[in-house]
């Protein structure tokens, strides 16, 4: 049977959830606690951060050997995925030749620097950013709503939501939340939804809300919000999200759609970049 990358990636995520870890609820966004490539010095993409549980530097067997090192006995490699774009030439109905491009998911294997002997890390961990987390959260949110034109309203109530037709995020009053952390986690969740509007990343349709399509969008928002919170260094207990029902819901969704986590992580990465007004991270290329 041919190796199925999507099944392998999804299986890795399911394994973590069944072991009691929600992969997107831990620091993996490429700050001082993230996983990064030795060859580029850059953090891995979101989907690879989810799979590479251990933070720090990773390299291929070839890179380890070329640096004069060797892999420790018994060390296990980790899979890293990337998109490889292929071109295919075809002739249309008018006899004219045209080239179509299409991405295919590929993978390679890496080892953590601690699984190598005879070489030192290429660089030390990145120093944490110095800022007040709450002030930075307010700045990011204010900049996003001003820059994109999306509206934010606070209304005393029991629900938070993003309305596609009104292009509006509605939040309960800040004082209704049990902590500032839970307020910002909820805010960034709804902001991630709003990045999917046709005026922005064009990920959503009005009819999708409340449907199965929109339920899959929830994973994008979960990952996007977690990325924002980890970027800020704001910790949340998220006890309500670690309930049996929450975990079972995602296990069912992932088992029913082997491409869900890959596509959701990719979309969340673009949403995260838009919220922070930064360029999306470049897709990993095959390490030589």
Overall average pLDDT: 86
Oligomeric state, counting identical vs distinct chains:
single chain
Distance between the termini: 27 Å
Biggest sheet descriptor: 4 strands, mixed
Tally of distinct domains: 2
Spatially, the strands of the biggest sheet line up as 1-2-5-4
Cα-atom radius of gyration: 21 Å
Question: β content, as a range?
Answer: 15-25%
H/E element order: HEHEHEEEEHEEEHHHH
| Helical content class | 25-40%
User: What structural class should be given to the helix and strand makeup?
Assistant: alpha/beta
* SS elements, strand count: 9
Put simply, the count of helices is 8
Q: Looking at the structure, what is the overall shape?
A: globular
Low-confidence runs of at least 5 consecutive residues:
27-32
Structural commentary:
Strand 8 and strand 9 (168-171) form a beta hairpin. The protein has helices at 5-18, 46-51, 61-66, 133-148, 180-194, 212-232, 244-256, 260-276; strands at residues 35-37, 56-59, 70-71, 78-91, 97-112, 116-117, 151-154, 161-163, 168-171. The chain folds into two domains: 5-117, no CATH class; 133-276, no CATH class. 38% of the residues lie in helices and 18% in strands. The protein is α/β, with parallel strands linked by helices and 288 residues long. Helix 1 runs antiparallel to helix 7. Strands 1-2-5-4 form a four-stranded mixed sheet. Strands 7-9-8 form a three-stranded mixed sheet, covered by helices on one side. Strands 3-6 form a two-stranded antiparallel sheet.
């Amino acid at each position: 049977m041919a190796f199925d990358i999507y099944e392998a990636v999804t299986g890795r995520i399911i394994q973590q959830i069944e072991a009691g870890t929600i992969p997107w609820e831990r620091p993996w966004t490429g700050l001082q606690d993230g996983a990064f490539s030795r060859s580029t010095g850059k953090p891995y993409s979101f989907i690879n951060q989810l799979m590479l549980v251990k933070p720090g530097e990773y390299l291929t067997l070839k890179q380890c050997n070329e640096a004069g090192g060797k892999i420790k006995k018994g060390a296990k490699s980790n899979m890293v995925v990337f998109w490889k774009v292929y071109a295919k030439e075809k002739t249309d109905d008018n006899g004219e030749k045209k080239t179509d491009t299409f991405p295919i998911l590929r993978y390679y294997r890496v080892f953590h620097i601690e699984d190598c002997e005879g070489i030192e890390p290429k660089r030390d961990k990145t120093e944490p950013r110095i800022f007040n987390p709450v002030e930075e959260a307010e700045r990011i949110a204010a900049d996003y709503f001003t820059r994109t034109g999306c509206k934010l309203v606070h209304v005393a109530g029991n629900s938070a939501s993003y309305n596609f037709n009104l292009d509006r995020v509605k939040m309960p009053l800040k004082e209704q939340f049990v902590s500032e952390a839970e307020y910002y986690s909820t805010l960034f969740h709804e902001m991630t939804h709003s990045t999917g509007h046709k005026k922005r990343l064009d990920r959503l349709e009005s009819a999708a809300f409340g449907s199965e399509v929109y339920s899959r969008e929830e994973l994008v928002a979960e990952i996007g919000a977690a990325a924002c919170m980890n970027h800020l260094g704001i910790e949340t207990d998220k006890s309500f999200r670690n309930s049996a029902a929450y975990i079972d819901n995602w296990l069912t969704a992932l088992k029913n759609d082997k491409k869900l986590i890959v596509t959701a992580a990719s979309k969340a990465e673009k949403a995260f970049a838009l919220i922070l007004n930064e360029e999306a991270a470049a897709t990993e290329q095959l390490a030589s």
